[in-house]
Amino acid sequence: PNEVIVADDDSWDFITISEAIEKSPAGSQIFICNGSYEENIVIDKKITLTGIDDDVIIMSETENPCISVKSNDVVYIKNLKLKNTTSQYAIRVEESSCGIYNCSINDSKASVYLKNSPDIYIGNCSFENNTVSIMLENSVAEIEDTEVKNSTGPQITVRLGSSATIENSKINSGAHKGIIVDNSELIIKKS
After folding, report:
1. Which one, of 98, 85, 89, lies nearest residue 67 by Cα?
2. Cα 84 to chain center, whole Å?
């Protein structure tokens, strides 16, 4: 597969993540160097986004998510720190399959919103001090080795015919209820 590198100092292939996605063919791996990227990224094809080191930050101060996924193929998001200070989600996945690995979303209005998405994996992630951490609507997700804490709203909401499995994870109640299940299925294992 095609591999490209993004660096906010213009030292590699691209200066923005959005441009790298737009100009790379489906199936590409996009590696992101340390830095802060204020972007609203749209992923509409099979792509793997990977932060190279521990300090890759994607921020949004607009009404759009940091990362919006709507693809017919699987998308992978790895090793990123995300923050969205508006009313939108840091990651919004709609009608897509997506793996989210080793990511942290802190101090955001909302973290991850999954809508009509049949195959979602969230693994080894951290969500802290958000208004809402994870919301599923008509989606299927596995949440594993993940910590969710200190939300001012619900930590995890599973609704509208969704199915979620939470395994080896820590869900600490914030100011609101820890987990809300509405007309959906929830399985909790070793959490």
Report:
1. 89
2. 11
Please tell me the predicted confidence (pLDDT) of residue 109: 82
* Ramachandran area for residue 150 (φ above 0: left; ψ -120 to 50: alpha; else beta): left
SS3 53: coil
Query: What are 111's two structure tokens?
Result: 């973290």
Residue with tokens 């802290």: 128
Local structure of residue 27 (DSSP, 8 states): T
Q: Name the amino acid, one letter, at 10.
A: D
168: left (phi over 0), alpha (psi -120 to 50) or beta: left
Mean local confidence (pLDDT), 105-132: 93
Percentage of residues in the chain having pLDDT higher than 90: 77
State which amino acid sits at residue 30. Answer: I
Neighbouring C-beta atoms of residue 118, cutoff 10 Å = 13
CA distance 13 to 15: 7
pLDDT in tens, 24-59: 999 999 999 999 999 999 999 999 999 998 899 999
